[in-house]
């Protein structure tokens, strides 16, 4: 399978060859042998080739402005002294820069402990989800069994149905967690609460039902369906079991899909606050701290006095900057593999 770089080089060489051939025909006077339709087509192609880069620049510039405007505003505000927010002469570039906003928010968010707690939750849940979703997707792609269509329809519903519908049943299940065999051994027949524990994240991921699990199963299913069947046949002839074939043959060929799903899972668990706020009241994560930052700033920096958003916005933007920095750092180092994984995974099929 050709990479994106190889495809671009091939397309560039093809266009160069066509241009050189046309130039040679023109020099030898062979253009007179072209039909009027061919001449008109060549003129249209040249006109489109001259105009399209201009329109492409306008489209990309507009999209970049829409996407980058919040980031530019955040950077401009996070390092700006609070009093300059009311200065009409300051638009984008502050007259002076300060790190006091970052320091204040760092303390209010308890950022060190919060990041460590969030990373542990994310890594464990993401690793479990990648393992279980890959096995599930492989089963849907390669095996035939009764009820396969119905079960895959449930997977599609996992993508469509919003999490708000299942929050209350899940909360009751976790609040009064009482599996029979576990209750007898550890709880002496009594129920135990999983609220405020990482198990509210780990258990769904362990059973391929975590955040966006339906989409991840679909990605793995599409990728494994695209692999040659002969790989499995050769493994079976060598005496491999289905599980060993999956581990030894399929997983190495699906590295790009594993990386794509893992990064998607990390980002979604990092940014999740709805599910976290439903099951956590004491277990702090970055998303929950950011969600409650306005209230915490009012209590700790302004002694509970009511303040407007404009008075507190420099600290809010500093909190947003701190929250996205770990994800941006991860993306900077892994973006090449991530983009390649998206191209080769089921998203590109």
From TrEMBL:
Gene3D superfamilies: MetI-like. It comes from the Bacteria. Keywords: Cell membrane, Coiled coil, Membrane, Transmembrane, Transmembrane helix, Transport. Residues 1-28 form a coiled coil. InterPro entries: MetI-like, MetI-like_sf. SUPFAM superfamilies: MetI-like. The keyword Transport applies. It is a multi-pass membrane protein. The chain crosses the membrane at residues 54-79, 119-138, 150-172, 201-224, 245-270, 312-334. It is found in: Cell membrane. The keyword Transmembrane applies. PANTHER family: ABC TRANSPORTER PERMEASE PROTEIN MG189-RELATED, ABC TRANSPORTER PERMEASE PROTEIN MG189-RELATED-RELATED. Belongs to the binding-protein-dependent transport system permease family. This is Carbohydrate ABC transporter permease. It comes from Hominimerdicola aceti.
